Amino acid sequence: MTRKITLCLWFNGCAEEATALYAGLFPESRVIDVSRYGDGEHGAPGAARIVTMELFGQKITAINGGGEFALTPAMSLLISCETQAEVDRYWDGLAAGGKPMRCGWITDRFGVTWQIIPAQFKRLISDPNTGGRVMAAACEMTKVDIAALERAAQG
């Protein structure tokens, strides 16, 4: 079945560099196709126009559309992590030149905002007896520490 919805990210000249980073960082990820600008077109001849990639099997299109629009944290990609090692790997891979934010959010150097969140986070904050403590602990963190969240849940 053909997917009806594909996420499209708008970049200002760095789509190919960004997709190469993502495809190298995340398993089950790859650059599928790169279409390039020709002579006399909007972009520099030979520069990437549209890059199609898969991240964790999800198709994403990256467009070098220019500086007219910018990515914002109002749209983010959430990566669900099973272990602290996985949290660390993705966080560290996106941190170089990026902007860490609270509660596991980070905007990478290309302007894409990510949530690097443990899979157990939803369960921990959903408990009516302990969820408030867990959320308060998470809001004090930049990169999420799973053990600290579990300690907060235990009181």
Q: Any idea what the CATH superfamily of the largest domain is called?
A: 2,3-Dihydroxybiphenyl 1,2-Dioxygenase, domain 1
Number of helices: 5
Shape: elongated
In angstroms, what separates the terminal alpha carbons? 47 Å
Question: Per DSSP, what share of the residues sits in E-state strands of 2 or more residues?
Answer: 25-35%
Q: What is the structural class?
A: alpha/beta
Largest sheet: 4 strands, mixed
Question: Can you walk me through this structure?
Answer:
The chain is of the alpha/beta class and about 160 residues long. It folds into 2 domains: about 1-70, 2,3-Dihydroxybiphenyl 1,2-Dioxygenase, domain 1 (Roll), CATH 3.10.180; about 70-155, Roll (2,3-Dihydroxybiphenyl 1,2-Dioxygenase, domain 1), CATH 3.10.180.10. Helix content is about 30%, strand content about 30%. The chain has 5 helices and 8 strands. The chain has helices at about 15-25, 85-95, 120-125, 130-140, 145-155; strands at about 5-10, 30-35, 50-55, 60-65, 75-80, 100, 105, 115-120. The strands form 2 sheets. It has a 4-stranded mixed sheet, with helices on one face. Helix 4 packs antiparallel against helix 5. It is elongated, with a radius of gyration of 18 Å. It comes from Candidatus Rhodoblastus alkanivorans. This is VOC family protein. InterPro entries: 3_dmu_93_MTrfase, Glyas_Bleomycin-R_OHBP_Dase, PhnB-like.
Describe the secondary-structure layout.
Layout: E1 7-11, H1 15-25, E2 30-36, E3 48-55, E4 58-64, E5 76-81, H2 84-95, E6 99-100, E7 105-107, E8 113-118, H3 121-126, H4 131-139, H5 146-154
